[in-house]
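Reproducibility note. Readers wishing to regenerate the assembly model reported in the main text can use the exact inputs given here. Chain order matters: entities are listed in the order in which they were concatenated for prediction.
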Amino acid sequence: MIVVELFLEFALLSFVAFGGATALLPEMHRVVVENHHWLDETTFTHLYAIAQAAPGPNVLVVTLIGWKVAGLAGALAATLAMCLPMSVLIYLLIDRWEGFAGARWQQAISLGVAPLAVGLIFSGATLIAQSAELGWAAWLLVAATVFANLRSKLHPLWFIGVGAALGLLGWV
Amino acid sequence: MTVTDTEIQSRPDLRALFFGFSSVGLSGFGGVLPFARRMLVEERRWMTAEEFNAQLGLCQFLPGPNVINLAVVVGKRYCGLSGAIVAPVGLLAGPLVIVLLLALLYDSYGGLPLAQGMLRGIAAVGCGLLFAMAWRMGMALKDKPVFLPFTALTVTAIAFMRWPMPLVMVAGLILSGGLAYWRLGRK
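Running the prediction on these inputs yields the following structure tokens for the assembly.
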């Protein structure tokens, strides 16, 4: 059954989601678009855009993917699969955290995982760019967004609004 | 009204947990962690800044959505198991309904050229925000000459080779974490 398959695939991913759901974009694309052909490239990009424009934690892109793959049951299964395993683990571990916080192996994992997470986010960005088949005008918008976001403290919603408006006008 | 750090902090009940985290979920765009901090530490004073940082440690150490992990921790702390369920549900419920309504709109109108154009524009901006986030995280890395090569390896394996991520992460963590472990021992 597709809902069960979706749940198992995403539950597995939740164990390597260092950097949150955003870091999972490339892998979700691989699983959902390339392996199972549950969604096409364009739909995947659109779902990412919708999640960007909606309030709430980044994990909701997972909900949208689940919805498109298997309706309401899919949405709930995908969201639960992404959140439940680590929630249970953290519930059991939090009281012992003080004991191993700062231990050498714990520091090593934190240090070691950080560069991998950066790579995952970067890969997600290249992948969205690829599947959206951005033209030169869109690449200009990407560059302007990177520059403005790094140089100012503007709320991300401003960028989303500008992107939506330029897109509506057919400029990108 | 003045409140000092030494004053006894308020203990939320299940209702307060649900609505507190709902407000966090609904106010954040593109990452809600800063909003969680503001609600917990500054507005409702359920914990001090030090407590927040300490609890956030495990939430960021483990994989998965950090802010969901944080809701579980805060919920457990004040209301045990039921709190650990109610807090993340509160965090997700509102945004989940909104996002599903948007999905319904997308199902009906997503094929229209105007909607397609708008989503393309947002996707382009979202792509830029991701590049910016990667840049900022990369600049914040410690010992960049040592660890940035692992970023490059991850991008090669994931974006270009399209290898499965669980495999890449386990291998990467052994190499990069192993190197970090060795370097920590030399200090």
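We highlight two features of this model. Confidence is low (pLDDT under 50) at residues 1-6 of chain B. The longest helix of chain B spans residues 66-109.
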